[in-house]
Amino acid sequence: MTSTETKVSSSSSSTAGLSWARLCKECGQQHEGQESHLYEYQDEVDDELVCHICLQPLLRPMDTPCGHTYCFLCISNFLKEQDFCPVDRQRLQLHQCRPSSLLVRNLLDKLIVMCPHYVECQQQMQRCELQPHLLNRCPVFRRLREEAEKRKRPSWNELKGRKDDSESSGDAKISASLSRNASRPQPDPGLINPAYEESEEDNTPLRSSLVAEANLVELFREEPEEVLGLRIVGGKDTPLGNIVIQEIVRESLAARDGRLAPGDHILEVNDISLASVPHARAIAVLQQPALLRLTVMQEKGFKIRDQRADPHPSTSSTPQHPTHGTHGNADNNPGTVLQVTLMKSQRSEPLGIKLIRKSEESGVFILDLLSGGLAARDGKLRNNDKVLAINGHDLRHGTPESAAQIIQGSEVRVNFVVMRPTEAQEDRGSSKEGQHSRGSRRLPEPQYFRRRTTYMKDPPGGFSSQEKTVSLKKEPRLSLGITIAGGRDCRSRLPVYITSVQPVGVLHRDGTIKKGDILLSINGVDLTQLTYSEAVSVLKAQTAQSQVFLRVIQTISEESEDDIDATNKDELDSMDELRDEAFNWTPLWTRWLGLPSHMHWCRDIVLQKTNSESWGFSIVGGYEESRGQQPFFIKTIVPGTPAHFDGRLKCGDEIVAVNGATTVGMNNSSLIPMLKLQKNKVTLTVVSWPGSLV
Questions:
Q1: Which residues, other chains included, contact 596 with Cβ-Cβ below 8 Å and sequence gap of 6+?
Q2: N or C: which end of the chain has fewer CB within 10 A?
Q3: For residue 232, what pLDDT is reported?
Q4: Is 504 in contact with 480 (CB distance < 8 Å)?
Q5: Among the listed residues 670, 656, 581, 635, the one whose alpha carbon sits nearest the alpha carbon of residue 195
């Protein structure tokens, strides 16, 4: 047995000098982001559970092929300088190591540790329980968090705004100085900022600024081929510039972690800057195995400079003003934001709420309130309410499991922020069953249409396409040897594209058709407006003939994979192979940018607001001297704004028209007034492509 040295200062030391920014949110100690977590163990720890490098109990234990076990950070840092096992000096690389067995990890999780704020907290617990304790029960940790939030973050009321002081204006340019500088930084060329909006009709001096924070997020792949579950857009070869998270894939590593969200800008990965790398290179960097340290810039919403809002909001149900007008169909009016506080008689009392997730929308929803339960007796929460936050924890992209953990770990007060569908809001007298039936019904299918001739434009600079044709004579029984995906019934109305060319098929021998090519027609039959199943049926019927004439479009980027060094190319090839195995292969987001306009399918998104609100999105594009005319793309969507609560706009979407007026050929000075003039309602015509999956 070995007695581990205490790696932290005495628990009796004052907490006055603690810095929330440097405080680790997992172990509660102050240490650098890339250093191991610090714990104060109560008992002696068996030598078999101690790392051979740091001589402390193992953290994220990794087994080597030669039979030794180390902390993940210890062995990964060691192997950056050496290429052998520290104990027996056998040749070793990090990708050869594997996570230790579940038994070992469970034994480590059960080690008893003290809360780092033991003097005030007086708590001991298993190591695996320390983080939930800090986040939900530790009074010192809660006090430090509240003090930091008062200094840096707006309250939910401030984010949503109130009717008497809801003027919202600010900079959408994301930089490290956003929340610190009093002066307004100048936006980059091509950056249009509808989130900044001065009301000429309102003489109030109230202004607001965007709050953004740079955070370090560590994601650990237990298996090297595990997919992170991020869809990303952007890159230096695109008008967006930055690498931006468009979407978090359900049930993925990133979704389970819960700290990343759509709209986050990825600045660095394992100390590699993504500020000036093309899209394909960023994908390769994010494919690194094992531990990823992501430095991300995260929007927090608007912070009111003139704090006229009540700093202590009422604990009763407090309806916020609707993020949209009170009229219009449900598709364009998501609902009303409310704050509800439930008071438990004792900490262990259940709330009586059943939570679910929905297949068509991210987040957590109330399925039912148990009869006689606390929530049902209170009467303020309702079936089908979407849970935005609990006790300040953002659950817009959370899971029922994470919500339940927060509720279980809370004290007697549980604060909910929910969004209520408008239909349920308007029909207060209906029964619970009636509310649930209407609130959960599927919304009307959005209307897509081909890009109109007045909206036509050239692809962004650096992207183009070319048409290819192939004529084959073949035996009727032989297959073309291709698999396809897409179709006009899929998400984003993608065209039919080739996901693989099999080495046994006739097209592979021809070599003209490649994976990722868009199918236009076969034997004169148009494939561009067919659903997936219709396209499959047509291909089967036509390939049964002895003569096949195939037309496809290949999209091209100047920053192609060929321009990246051989190592990166190998990484991309490996990524494609893994994606073929785990998911249905999809082209990179940049491939869609080169698609000609006549292949685009658009939809209209109607946003509504009050006069003093911001639309809540920023745009890049328009005329740039270095690139000429560029399309307009959504770069940022600000939390707590109409664009955010509507939920249909995504980072990377192209805006092709505003209220039916095309943006093709516009520059910044033309589009800014057009957006500012729309006081209550605006119709955005957009084209949306799925981000690249990593």
A1: 459, 465, 553
A2: N
A3: 95
A4: no
A5: 635
